């Protein structure tokens, strides 16, 4: 998967600047961490680079917010889980099935989803990869969730 991560901030001279412009680094699981912040509200005076340069489940419990791009491989099977997070998902390409304990919905490019920490699963029924942009924020647990 191609793509770049570009981050802005203040340069050494105190003027607005592009601080990072590099290829996205995808982990074996298909996640590419674009950026994360250790706490909310976000302190824009901190360095531009993410404290978690590669996706880790530790991010979900770190107290801040993360932005990543996820690729779901073609014909990806189910992985049921719940996390103590709110995840804002925007589909960029392809299609993916989002499953709950009582139903499912197919998400396609242009669709958005806000997952509020419930037990859920992702599945790709197509022969093409799907890609989503995800903002993840910590949340209090809900219901009978099994956290990752």
From TrEMBL:
Transmembrane segments: none annotated. It comes from Novosphingobium aquae. InterPro entries: Cupin_2, OryJ/VirC-like, RmlC-like_jellyroll, RmlC_Cupin_sf. This is Cupin domain-containing protein. Residues 70-133 form the Cupin type-2 domain. Pfam families: Cupin_2 (PF07883).
């Amino acid at each position: 998967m191609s793509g770049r991560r570009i981050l802005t901030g203040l340069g050494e001279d105190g003027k607005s600047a592009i601080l990072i412009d590099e290829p996205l680094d995808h982990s074996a699981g298909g996640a590419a961490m674009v950026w994360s912040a250790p706490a909310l509200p976000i302190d824009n005076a901190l360095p531009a680079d993410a404290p978690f340069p590669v996706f880790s489940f530790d991010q979900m419990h770190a107290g801040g917010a993360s932005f990543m791009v996820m690729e779901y491989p073609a014909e990806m099977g189910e992985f049921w889980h719940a996390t103590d997070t709110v995840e804002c998902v925007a589909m960029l390409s392809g299609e993916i099935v989002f499953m709950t304990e009582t139903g499912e919905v197919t998400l396609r490019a242009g669709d958005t989803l806000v997952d509020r920490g419930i037990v859920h699963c992702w599945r790709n029924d197509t022969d093409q990869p799907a890609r989503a942009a995800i903002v993840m924020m910590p949340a209090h647990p809900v219901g009978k969730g099994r956290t990752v």
